[in-house]
Amino acid sequence: MKYVLVTGGVVSGLGKGVTASSIGVVLKACGLRITSIKIDPYLNTDAGTMSPFEHGEVFVLDDGGEVDLDLGNYERFLDVTLTRNNNITTGKIYQSVLEKERRGDYLGKTVQVVPHITDAIKNWIESVAVIPVDGKEGPAEVCVIELGGTVGDIESMPFIEALRQLSFSVGQDNFCLVHVSLIPVLGVVGEQKTKPTQHSVRELRALGLTPHLLACRSAQPLLENTKEKLSQFCHVPAGNILNIHDVPNIWHVPLLLRNQNAHLSILKQLNLLDDAATPALQDWTRMAETFDNLTESVRIALVGKYVGLSDSYLSVVKALLHACIACSLKPSIDWIAASDLEDDSARLTPEAHATAWETLRNAACVLVPGGFGDRGVTGMILAAKYARENKVPYLGICLGMQISVIEFARSVLGLERANSNEFDNETPNPVVIFMPEGSRTHMGNTMRLGSRKTLFQTPDCITSKLYQNSEYVEERHRHRYEVNPEFIGILEESGLKFFGRDESGNRMEILELPTHPFYVGVQFHPEFKSRPARPSALFLGLILAATGLLEAYLGRHQNGS
Ligand code: GLN
């Protein structure tokens, strides 16, 4: 196994994840098989308990792992399927060491950060790196490891030490370190400053790691003399100083790296030059350029709870982008805080209320994404009602599907207090209930997580056609509540059809309103499996419906062309 370690210096938020996944893309284009590991030095065992407000979305994997959103980047860029163990956190490492300590595995020994924690990190990396993630057999050739945080952080120290030891044990030819850093410019026509990078490289070297390549982030392309200075002071050959300057969209980053021959420097370090092809990257070039040249846009109202931070819905945003690009459209996402649509907001913040409604009315389609807790639920119900009554294309994801069931029960069935038990435990009409796969009495570990099968009940519905008439789909889940099976009869009689169900037939997975041009709710999260060149069927359906092209698309598809 060959390792490419990506570290970051100077400040956080440099786009280390995009850099690391882009390195993976370029190496993959050289014909190598790639896997990746993300290290998050925080103490949480996984991202499942972290607030999207603070940390962005929780990404969900096939195996049910709730992981850092960077793993989403890797899956999308490298088109791989990662496992929960591809995300290492301090919490996971300590947990495994402490479990061993309790079992008596270290009997008689003093258990310490070095060597026990560092050994656990090394073993974890080496055992996860060999898990195939690209659908082929046998281990990948190169494992890209991204170390979260900034070099010098107290919490990343055990990882740095473990990685230093790893670099030594795997040997020179199998280890390449790329350090991502920032080159700021002071003043309007100021100079490109190399000092912060010099300091962070010095810090890295003091810890026993020497970067083989520098990936310098900057607003404008680096000047030659900046590169020379960096080379001289950072002990990195000039040819190995890469520059990732600002680009119009992130799909340019692999191209930027390829154009600077990043792959040659990395392959040389890893002694792989003889095994690698020239990276053509036609698909990426086409995607990046198509994106740059889009002129027409489509307005999508995204009505959610965490709209302050766009990373909270990162995969939804990416899935919309993939679908729009497939339709040669630029996504224009109008973020609406669900609570602004509510009547209370009309009294308390009338301007925000008016703007939210105007935005909703101007949108070509409405999307209500997943979420937890009751904040904004009333506003989401209003948005679903608006879309249903005005025949505006609607896609409800997870909570968004539950919302449409509540709305339909209230407005169409006349069950005024219909609700989800998540928001009202006393409701006389619990149309959405707690339906764990395991224990009903314990809240911990009761989330339905990861990939599950949804079987289509009929081929004669929009979603089945969008999924190419497959008998079933496998999408990822992350929820506790479900549509109450006791209400299915009356909901269906009144026109809300549950065309997709789980294998037991008890869990409703897909709903449609056949009298509406596109009113779809799904209990799963289709956004997690959307890929740049393979948009999610449901997001594509939403965008096609929003632009009036859905019928033609489905017709074409049925004729087999
Ligand atoms: N809060 C809802 C549930 O737990 C929806 C979850 C979600 O949207 N991911 O079922």
What does this structure look like?
The chain has a nine-stranded mixed β-sheet with strand order 11-10-12-13-21-20-19-16-17, sandwiched between helices. With 561 residues, it is an alpha/beta fold. The model has no long low-confidence stretch (mean pLDDT 93). Helices cover 37% and strands 20% of the residues. It is built from 20 helices and 21 strands. α4 crosses α5. The site of glutamine has 10 residues, from β17.
Parts with pLDDT < 50 across at least 5 consecutive residues: none
User: What's the N-to-C terminus distance?
Assistant: 44 Å
Count of distinct strands? 21
The mean pLDDT is 93
Give the biggest sheet. Answer: 9 strands, mixed
Number of helices: 20
Class computed from helices, strands and strand pairing: alpha/beta
Radius of gyration, in Å, reads 25 Å
Explain the layout of strands and helices.
Blueprint: E1 2-8, H1 16-29, E2 34-40, H2 52-55, E3 59-60, E4 66-67, H3 70-78, E5 87-89, H4 90-103, H5 113-129, E6 142-147, H6 157-170, E7 175-182, H7 195-206, E8 213-218, H8 224-234, E9 241-245, H9 252-259, H10 262-269, H11 282-292, E10 297-304, H12 314-326, E11 330-337, H13 343-348, H14 350-362, E12 365-368, H15 377-389, E13 394-397, H16 399-411, E14 419-420, E15 430-434, E16 448-456, H17 462-466, E17 472-479, E18 481-483, H18 488-493, E19 497-501, E20 508-512, E21 519-522, H19 537-546, H20 550-558
Parallel strand pairs: 1-6, 1-7, 2-5, 2-6, 7-8, 8-9, 10-11, 10-12, 12-13, 13-21, 14-15
Antiparallel strand pairs: 3-4, 15-18, 16-17, 16-19, 19-20, 20-21
Helix pairs in contact: 1-3, 1-9, 4-5, 5-6, 12-19, 15-16
The structure holds glutamine (GLN).
